[in-house]
Amino acid sequence: MTSSTPSGQRNDGAWLAGLWIGLSAVCCLLVYFVWGPHLPPGAQSNSAATQQFDIKVLAVIATPVIVGVLLYFGWALAFWRQRPGDDTDAAPLHGNTRVQVTWITVTSAIVLGLAVFGTYELIAPAGAGGGEGPQPIWKPAGTVTTSSTSWAPGGKNILQVQVIGQQWAFTYRYPQFGGFETTQLELPVGQPVRFNVTSLDVIHSFWAYQLGVKADANPDVNNVAYTTPQHTGTFTVRCAELCGIWHGAMYDYGKVVADSDFLNWAQSSETQLASVTKLLPPYALTYDPTVVASMGKVNTQLGLTGAGGGYYNPADPEQP
Ligand SMILES: [Cu+2]
Q1: What is the CA radius of gyration of the chain?
Q2: 36/31 Cα distance (integer angstroms)
Q3: In angstroms, rounded to a whole number, what is the distance separating the alpha carbons of residues 66 and 76?
Q4: Separation of CA 82 and ligand 1 centre (Å)
């Protein structure tokens, strides 16, 4: 690895090492403190902030590698290129056990350390915004009940929001507010939220970008993701799973608002939508759109009777 340095000549190895350490130190600080706060997905929720921290750490670790490659490249172009008329060979390369052992030890330690870091970061923030299936092993403190009027800001009960994917829109049900269903996603700032994510048809994925939440929305599955919004403002919701021809149009915007604004909105929505909520299937963690008994009742209430005796069969062209 090292080339012998005839006395009196510039020691390239020492120069490169010194420049590499100095430039890396400066660039690492710039990456973490200047670029870092602008890295995705931002810090609108605790899970987003955790992901941003993870990306900052990885970027800082990658910085000396990039600096080293570019520095070596620039140095080679500037000082080691062949001069006109120079046909001599370059200095021979030799093995160096100490350098090789150090290289293997340091890189192994970094890779294993990052594996531990990544595992801890997935577990410690209680979900990290990822859907963890119906029974998450790691969850934030607090209880989960769906009974109406059981949620209050700062209480022990965690706010639940059911996310229902269907071709090609997301709707949201709030079981602690009578189970009303809406296309608007509103969340209170500073309060833990439990998303219960499911689908009525094909596979979708609920991706609340600035909240750092991404959870598969699968039919017959309740996929749970936790987060705590930290800042008010809007965030983007996209479907992140190719789900048919209008997949690209399956997006909307959610809002993080103050506690009191959320409570006003949720309570007035519950009241305003009460007559519609009665017609919905009762709140459940998953729904089977082909066997929803209350839809038959809706047909009866509307005075519709068909071959199914009012039972709604989506496959029957005779039925409305
Ligand atoms: Cu979709």
Answers
A1: 29
A2: 6
A3: 15
A4: 58
Residue 256: closest CA among 187, 160, 180? 187
166 CA to middle of ligand 1, Å?
A: 7
Q: How far apart are CA 202 and CA 120, in angstroms?
A: 33
Write down the pTM of the prediction.
Answer: 0.79
CA of 180 to the centre of ligand 1 (A): 22
HSE value, Cβ hemisphere, 13 Å, CA-based, for 151 = 29
Q: What is the pLDDT of residues 56-79, one digit of tens each?
A: 999 999 999 999 999 999 999 998
